[in-house]
Every structure is written in structure tokens, then in C-alpha cells.
Design a protein that fits this description.
This protein has 2 domains: 70 residues; 112 residues, Immunoglobulin-like. Helix content is 41%, strand content 39%. It is of the alpha+beta class. The chain starts with a helix and ends with a strand.
Amino acid sequence: MATAAGSPGRLRQRGTACGRGSRAGAGDSAPARERRNDAAAGTRALDEQIQGLKKDVVDLNKDLFVLEEELLFPANTQVAVFVSVDVGDFFALDSVTLKIDNHDVSNYLYTPREVSALLKGGVQRLYVGNLKAGQHELVALFNGKGPHDRDYRRAANIRFEKGVGAKYLELKITDHQRAQQPEFEIKDWE
């Protein structure tokens, strides 16, 4: 009995000793820890390089966009047309068609969110293009809902002189309180 009682005790001791020894040796050796630390440091360095490259790509893209704008629309031939809405009680803007020298250059259909932004004082760049120096005519066709929720279509035009340098024009929609009608004006920013 002493043998039987002694044997399980020894087995238990050996099993415990073996179990501890095998666990300690499997993952906690110095070379294994060093490899894990090296891999983590390498991954961090790679992540930092990738983030740096992403930032460089964004900066390069921004520079290319500016360069493209300057090449496509040089300041001496550039014309830009903007849209603004003041009040908006008598006209709900739906779309704007823009013609320069009898050529359609822009057709824009507004979403309710864009109209809301314009009513809050926003200004939209509707068109940017190139024009040679000289006399030009701009015609803007406004579509939307007018007084008493009727379909409303009005046009406004302006003859302007394009000189050297950029030309800026604003299509301005305002309310005429006395007539209870919208007014459409084209303003030349000189």
C-alpha cells in the first residue's frame, strides 16, 4: 500500500513539475520574446511609414489640383459664375441653365439641401471656364416654383467686357416685396 500510495504522489509531483517545465520553456524563452518585440517594432515602423506616405499622397494630390486649375483656367482667361439667393419667399429654385455667347455651358439641378444652403447665405460656384478678351453675353435661365406655387421660368442676361484678368459674375435671386415677385439680377464683380 505504501507503494501504491507513494506512486500516485510521485506521479502527481512529476506531472506538475513536467507541466510547469514545459509551459515555461515553450513561449517564454529570451529569443522568442526578442522575435516578438522585433516584429511589433517592425509593424509599428511600417504603420508610421504608411501614414507618412498617405499624407504625402494627399499633399501631392492637393498640389496637382491647384496646378490643374491654374493650367486649365489661367487667370487672364478665366470667367467664374456664382449663384446666390436672398430671402426666397417668392421663388423656390429648382434649376439654372447658363449660356455664354449662345453656347450652353452649365445646367444645374438643385437638391433641397443645396437650396437650403443658398437660403442660409451660401454662394455656389456654378461655372468656371475660359473666355478670350472682348465682348460676351451671358444668359441665365432660372426654373422653379413662383408665387402661388406656380411653375416659374425667368431669364436674365448681361453683356460684359472680358479684359485681362479673371472675371467674376454673380447670379442673384432676390425678392421684390412690393411686387411680390422674385427678381433675377446678374452682378458683375469688378
